[in-house]
Amino acid sequence: MEANSRGFSHKMDPTLKIADPPRVESSVFDGGRPVNPGSPRGEGCCRITGVALIDVQGLTRSFRTYKKAPGFSGALKGLFRREYETVFAVKDVSFKVEEGEFVGFLGPNGAGKTTTLKMLAGLLYPTSGTASVLGYVPWERADGYRRQFALLLGQKNQLWWDLPARDSLELNGRIYGLAPEAFRRTVDEMSELLGVRDKLSTAVRELSLGERMKCELIAALLHQPKVLFLDEPTIGLDVVSQKVVREFLREHNRQRKTTILLTSHYMADIQELCDRVIIIDRGTVFFDGRLAEILDRFAGFKIITVTLEQASGFASVPLAELGEVLEQSSALARLKVPRESVIATCKVLLDRLPVKDFAVEEVPIEDIIRQVFERR
User: Fold this and answer.
1) Is 222 exposed, middle or buried (0-12, 13-18, 19+ CB in 10 A)?
2) What's the rounded Cα separation, in Å, for the pair 213 and 68?
3) Bridging pattern class, strands 227-231 and 149-153
4) Backbone angles phi, psi at 168, to 5 degrees
5) How far apart are CA 273 and CA 266, in angstroms?
6) How far, in Å, are 78, 86, 132, 222 from residue 69 at the CA level?
7) Are the CB atoms for 29 and 35 separated by under 8 Å?
8) How far apart are CA 170 and CA 174, in angstroms?
9) Where does residue 182 rank: exposed (0-12), middle (13-18), buried (19+ CB within 10 A)?
10) Of the candidates 241, 158, 151, 253, the residue with the CA atom closest to the CA atom of residue 194
11) Model confidence over 74-104: pLDDT tens digits?
């Protein structure tokens, strides 16, 4: 090597072996951002094979808050001497998400779910820790990253309030450089699936909450992102609109293999869409696994429902000795029974009673999640 500007020189050892670079998929670049050779506008991402699409390690975000003493004297005191408290919104959070996964992100209010999504979207800088999404560091806000993800906040609007939804969608299409034909095809397809095709020419402020959220969803998916962050997308929607949004997201994930991280307080969203859940509380992850594992790990009971052929009552069986009686009438009884006693209890009921109908069910998942949070 030649001498550098500081006057130092370095000779390369001819015996030195340089390691081969990691194998990279779709290593074609256009305009400074990774693309797939076969994609029309380079929507694909360039990433090292075998690496998770989302990789979060030790992510922490703390806030320094002012503790004001009560009353006027407290306000005066604060002018000269203030007491501060460090609050951890997210503390040492780590997880990985593979391509095409639909992951539920659960936790009570203030648990740190939205803060985590905002850091992964590049809206907040972390206090410490690392994160990689599509091979990018989110808070560096690289143009290539911003073209490949979307963040939808259920309580925030991205559509212009006084303009028709179509005008805002066309603006987004221009920003992302979508071809007119591709833009029209995408909008027509999504608006048809969500049932808002006839609402696109209506001013956003005149749309119902459900119609507005569906249009927001179209805006978020307009550029076909590889990663989608959803923060309570069905909040405030009626049951019909919730079902339409869930079916749309399920189908979009299946067809496009979009990696989706979903937060929601509606357990129906999580049960119908997510095989895997991450539970966070007080800024810390304490469960990461399949949804079915929550029942095995935290649910110690099952619900047994017995319906008799006739209203003869349950005098021949001491129900209170078998389990907790949740409901009882002359022809029906519901018992909460420890999981290890379910088989024995079922045998007693079937042997001693004229049973017409019989059912064994898991405790509702929302009850289990609530109990978990209450115990922490």
Assistant:
1) buried
2) 39
3) parallel
4) -65, -40
5) 11
6) 8, 17, 41, 49
7) yes
8) 6
9) middle
10) 241
11) 788 878 888 888 999 999 999 999 999 999 9
Q: The tokens of 144 are what?
A: 């290539």
pLDDT in tens, 45-55: 333 344 689 99
CA angle, residues 72, 74, 77, in degrees to nearest 5: 115
Residue holding tokens 């001819």?
A: 14
Question: Residue 8's pLDDT band (boundaries 50, 70, 90)?
Answer: very low
**Three-class secondary structure of residue 5 per DSSP:** coil
Q: Shortest CA distance to 229 belongs to which of 56, 35, 33?
A: 56
- Which residues are CB-neighbours of 33 under 8 A, at least 6 positions away? 42, 142, 143, 144, 147
CB-based burial, 232-255: b 16+ in 10 Å, e otherwise: bbbbebeeebbebbbebbeebbee
Q: Backbone phi, then psi, for 373, in 5-degree steps?
A: -65, -35
DSSP characters for 32-49? Answer: TEEE-TTSSS--S---BT
Beta pairing partners, 152: 230
Residue 51: predicted pLDDT: 64
Which strand (E) or helix (H) includes residue 85? strand 83-97
Q: How confident is the model at residue 41 (pLDDT cuts 50, 70, 90)?
A: very low
Which positions ≥6 away from 109 have C-beta within 8 Å? none
CA distance 373 to 199: 41
Q: Using alpha carbons, select from 225, 224, 268 the residue that is nearest to residue 247.
A: 268
Alpha-carbon distance of 194 to 234, in angstroms, equals: 13
- What is the side-by-side strand order in the sheet with 83-97? 83-97, 54-67, 128-133
